[in-house]
Amino acid sequence: MATLITILYYLLLAFFAAGFIWNFRKSRNWQTEALYLIVLLPFLLRLFRLK
Amino acid sequence: MPDLIGLRKSLLVVAFLLIFIFSGLSFYRSRHLKEPLVAGEGVLEVRKLSDYFSGLKGSINDAKVYVLGNRAEGSSGGAALILGGSHPEEPAGRLAAWLIVENARVEGGRIFVIPTANPSASTATRLGGAYPPDYTIDTPWGRQTFRQGDRWSNPLDQWPDPEVYIHYPSRQQLAYMDIRNQNRTWPGRPNGTMTEKTCYAMTRLILSEKIDLVIDLHEAELQYPVISTIVAHEKGADLAAAASMFISSVEGFAIGVENSPKALRGLSHREIGDATDAISLLLEAPEPFLDATRGRTDRALLLTGKDEFVVRAGKRGLLFEKIDENGWPIDIRVGRHTSTVLQILENWSADRPDRAVVVSGVPRYTEVVAKGTGAFLKDPGTAPAGKLFFE
User: Fold this and answer.
1) Least packed by Cβ within 10 Å: which of B131, B139, B328, B341?
2) Residues of A in contact with B5 (CB under 8 A)
3) CA A43 to CA B13: how far, in whole Å?
């Protein structure tokens, strides 16, 4: 069960990370763009199993 | 205008990548830092926990077990297991175990030492705690760096946590994150979490090697009442009391004795004594780095134990151990552990000559304080072939 939850968790991470990148590309406001990148950072660190 | 937006986005992406690469490399290096350990003349062989429980094979927690003995004596006599790094953020325990593996000569019996009892926990630091990733000990041949570590197994290795951690087999309810706390998951179980499996493997080791004594090396914050003490299972109360009296009269420092509470489950001093024939003892040394009222949480605080805010807490009567501007240097904490381990083994061997564990070569408190911990760490650059290992 823990393995299944972990796989789902990483899929969720990837989904949200892709969403942040997509929204960053679409945004035309620099503050929103910076915010998307700041929020993306911990998602990528976990996705790449760095932290 | 679109070009300006593109330029702005490019600059933001570059800044993002710099931060990501810098932080990512720092975390990667911290998780994969190799700590050299030179097996001393007492080390007969190096095993792994998976030799006792195959379910740990391939896991980060398949810890190394250094088996110390005397080839001429064979396996006669008693056996002791010494655990460092059950909580890696308590470095005196790991360093004391290091000194034992690198320096001990065993004249009777066997000593099993696991310097990093929870390797996974040694690869993480406290979330939100601003811990340094590592610390360095000065030695005559250079500097040796150790991972800082945390109290709990790394969430990268064991996840998710439950809402409430239910200890096996007592079914006592504990805090959710303590399912990753190696001193809450004894005696462990073969089909449990990684941390539970690690304890199970060590319990199998204790049973199959007929271990007489288990000594688990820890440190504690000064605001915690169980400090500067030997926590003893009732089977080891007399042994702990005798060791405490000898130490307090001849070693230059005082150490108390606490009874292992029967109602608090999952701890080594309780569960090992209940689940096996071994006497289980846990040593606590003072570590101001862990105090909630500490100031800057850096390498200096970890190694010197000096903190003006903890001193202020002491002046207000909020601490269970004294502290002044001299702090609690790492050498004092390591020396307390080595002397206490040696004294326990001496008292045990005097009481049970048929199961004696006789050891020499390990520096005692006064030596460690006078020369420093680093003076007893061996140079990996000059290690004989086959004697160099990495934790």
Assistant:
1) B139
2) 28
3) 16
Please list the pLDDT of chain B residue by residue as tens digits (391 residues): 568 899 999 999 999 999 999 999 999 999 999 999 999 999 999 999 999 999 999 999 999 999 999 987 666 899 999 999 999 999 999 999 999 999 999 999 999 999 999 999 999 999 888 899 999 999 999 999 999 999 999 999 998 999 999 999 999 999 999 999 999 999 999 999 999 999 999 999 999 999 999 999 999 999 999 999 999 999 999 999 999 999 999 998 999 999 999 999 999 999 999 999 999 999 999 999 999 999 999 999 999 999 999 999 999 999 999 999 999 999 999 999 999 999 999 999 999 999 999 999 999 999 999 999 999 999 999 999 899 999 9
Can you tell me the ipTM of this complex? 0.94
Tell me if A6 and B23 make a contact (CB, 8 A cut-off): no
Q: Which residues on A lie below 8 Å from B23 (Cβ)?
A: 41, 45, 50-51
Whole-number Cα distances in Å, B112 to B50, B85, B205, B277:
15, 14, 9, 16
